[in-house]
């Protein structure tokens, strides 16, 4: 059933115009916008994200997607063996009143005041265990998929996976050691973050499906990673961090977590996960080759990270990975 018909039949919403934002199909009715997502056995996750979305909407983030009930008061509408949730956006974000750093710090401050700690969307304090589990599961799954699909993509992935394991184990060990560091303070408490932050706060819409609960440096590290991978100058990263710290100064513990997360090769795991549900192996092969080409540049950027942002690792007793030196 098309989204237009779904909105009319189950929500009594007569839309005026079809739109597309961030590759997602939606519709406009007056000043409001509507999108949908499939359930995919994510009821508990979607409802936790819904509660977070309502909290942010009530605190002046009108551009966030909020689930709305259907005519029967239900959050999910079942059609042709599929279950859908409909999201409403009250107002698009059309101006940037804050810099990237200040916008994220403000968002994190608001998120840290959220009354409840979500359980099903939380990664707070669990990076090491989650990364170990992911590495184990992916290693087994890759071997299985490579046998089913003996393509150039999987041959390259199998050949390079020992390198990926090495990167991952370095990051896991670094996080394990950092977890013992007691130099933390108030801003190290959990907050609402994004799965992969690439400056979404300056986009027209915040997608509530992107929200999770974690340490705030998750977003900081992912923003920095994106700047490195898109070859943005160091000055942009430094400016972002200075602006962020005007509102929320980073502890030594936070700096260590940022570095540890930047060590972990999250983009390659995202790419591999995409390969598990797609058979576009030619494009996956190209993307994998590009990843390894970018990785050399990325490691060079990471090598000089602390120095470029004015962090004296000797004075602060912050360890760095020797193979990057």
From TrEMBL:
Q: Which residues form a coiled coil?
A: none
Name the SUPFAM superfamilies for this protein: Protein kinase-like (PK-like)
Q: Name one GO cellular component term.
A: endospore-forming forespore
**PANTHER family membership:** ENDOSPORE COAT-ASSOCIATED PROTEIN YUTH, SPORE COAT PROTEIN I
What is the protein name for this chain? Spore coat protein YutH
Task: Record the organism.
Answer: Oceanobacillus arenosus
């Amino acid at each position: 059933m098309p989204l237009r018909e779904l909105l009319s039949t189950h929500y009594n919403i007569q839309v005026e115009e079809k739109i597309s934002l961030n590759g997602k199909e939606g519709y406009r009715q007056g000043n409001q916008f509507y999108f949908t997502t499939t359930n995919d056995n994510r009821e508990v996750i979607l409802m936790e994200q819904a509660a977070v979305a309502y909290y942010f909407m009530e605190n002046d983030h009108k551009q966030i997607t909020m689930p709305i009930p259907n005519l029967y008061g239900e959050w999910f509408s079942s059609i042709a063996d599929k279950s859908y949730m409909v999201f409403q956006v009250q107002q698009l974000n059309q101006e940037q009143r804050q810099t990237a750093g200040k916008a994220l710090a403000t968002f994190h401050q608001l998120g840290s005041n959220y009354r409840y700690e979500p359980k099903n969307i939380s990664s707070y304090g669990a990076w090491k265990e989650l990364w170990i589990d992911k590495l184990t599961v992916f290693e087994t799954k890759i071997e299985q998929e490579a046998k089913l699909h003996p393509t150039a993509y999987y041959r390259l992935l199998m050949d390079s996976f020992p390198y990926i394991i090495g990167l991952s184990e370095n990051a896991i060990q670094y996080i394990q050691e950092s977890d013992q560091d007691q130099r933390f303070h108030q801003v190290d408490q959990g907050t609402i973050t994004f799965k992969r932050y690439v400056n979404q706060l300056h986009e027209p819409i915040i997608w509530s499906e992107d929200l999770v609960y974690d340490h705030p440096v998750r977003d900081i590290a992912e923003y920095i990673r994106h700047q490195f991978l898109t070859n943005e100058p160091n000055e942009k990263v430094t400016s972002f961090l200075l602006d962020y710290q005007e509102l929320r100064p980073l502890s030594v513990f936070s700096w260590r977590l940022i570095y540890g997360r930047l060590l972990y090769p999250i983009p390659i795991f995202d790419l591999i996960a995409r390969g598990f549900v797609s058979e576009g192996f030619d494009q996956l092969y190209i993307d994998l080759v590009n990843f390894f080409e970018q990785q050399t540049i990325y490691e060079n950027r990471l090598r000089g990270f602390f120095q470029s942002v004015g962090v004296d690792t000797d004075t602060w007793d912050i360890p760095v990975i020797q193979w990057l030196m």
